[in-house]
Amino acid sequence: MKKPFPALLRRWIELALLLMILFTNLTGGYGLAQGTTVLIDPPGKEVAIGATTTVNVRIENVTNLYGAEVHLVFNPTLLEVVDADSGRDGVQIQPGSFLSPDFMAKNNADQTSGRIVFAVAQMPPHEPVSGSGILATITFRGKAGGTSVVDFSTTQPTSPVILSDRDGMPINAGTRGGNITVTGGPSPTPTLTPTHGPTPTFTPTPSVTPTPKWSILGHHTVQSKETLYCIGRAYGVDPYAIAKQNGILNPSIIRAGQRLAIPNASRRLPAGKVCPRQFDGTPPPPHCRWNHTVAPGENLYRISLRYKVSMWAIAEANHILNLNYIRAGEVLCIP
């Protein structure tokens, strides 16, 4: 009498798994736990020629986020980005409130090529953030009638979205783009709106940028659990320059045993895990963008916020061994 029970139980389990798979296929997985997604919110909008509208770059379901970089594209014949900060050179988008913009590595909208690059990282004492929120807000103005994508760049040599935790470890994320329809005028080019086939994305004319020629500081053999960020911190070198120098398409993926040429491409990085150095090559000393005379009661943390420069970078530039001790009247080099 007991033998049929396991077979019956097994049958119920098989049926439950079948129903789960069917449910996932029908709903796209939204009825189950979702992974991290970076998306354009809302996914579709309309705007008249000459009028403005806004869309958000939103991050959903993330854990321990400390830094983010996104590469976006839009059709510059139909839309233009409204500058969020007229007091700075170039055209910027508006940082959101999800990450504190302690270290703004990049904020640039290219009106000619239709590309937006936005990279931001937090600094201590801010803690990593989890959940969902707005990374940035973009204001567009309509220029000509038609529908433009507002999407994550698929032609980017690295990933169009790079999320990382405090240690520079990558956080995997999916993407979901959107579009904006400009009303009130004729569609500009028939080739952008064919009557058959998949909806295309425009191909902007790439700007001609010469490939940088860096000298090589030395070579580093990747160890287990090392990342380009922690290697970059070890030598004060831009991790994306390391990726480009070594033909790495996805900076989040390197393998133990890989031998990397470390280029002489210095960059200030957010604080985090630092890999052990494997050679003594050192980038040239930082150039002082400003000189700051320490006022009574000031500390490195407050000075770093004022200039939006890592306090570790200031300490290194001025050979400060104790981050909690600086003297009033001392002149600091701000790199």
CATH class of the largest domain: Mainly Beta
Please name the CATH topology of the largest domain: Immunoglobulin-like
- The separation of the N and C termini measures 80 Å
State the low-pLDDT regions, or none: 21-33, 187-211
Offer a quick outline of the entry.
This protein is 16% helix and 32% strand. The radius of gyration is 24 Å and the shape is globular. The protein has five helices and 18 strands.
Task: Give a written overview of the molecule.
The protein has 335 residues and is an alpha+beta fold. It folds into three domains: 37-187, Immunoglobulin-like; 213-284, Roll (Membrane-bound Lytic Murein Transglycosylase D, Chain A), CATH 3.10.350.10; 290-334, Roll (Membrane-bound Lytic Murein Transglycosylase D, Chain A), CATH 3.10.350.10. Helix content is 16%, strand content 32%. The chain is built from five helices and 18 strands. Strands 2, 4, 7, 8, 10, 11, 12 and 14 form an eight-stranded mixed beta sheet that branches. Helix 2 (228-235) packs across helix 3. The radius of gyration is 24 Å and the shape is globular. The model is unreliable at 21-33 and 187-211 (pLDDT under 50).
Secondary structure topology:
Elements: H1 4-27, E1 37-41, E2 44-48, E3 52-65, E4 67-74, E5 79-81, E6 94-95, E7 103-110, E8 115-121, E9 129-142, E10 146-152, E11 161-164, E12 170-171, E13 174-176, E14 178-183, E15 216-221, H2 228-235, H3 239-245, E16 259-263, E17 290-293, H4 300-307, H5 311-317, E18 331-334
Parallel strand pairs: 1-13, 2-14
Antiparallel strand pairs: 1-3, 3-9, 4-8, 4-10, 4-11, 5-9, 6-9, 7-8, 10-14, 11-12, 15-16, 17-18
Helix pairs in contact: 2-3
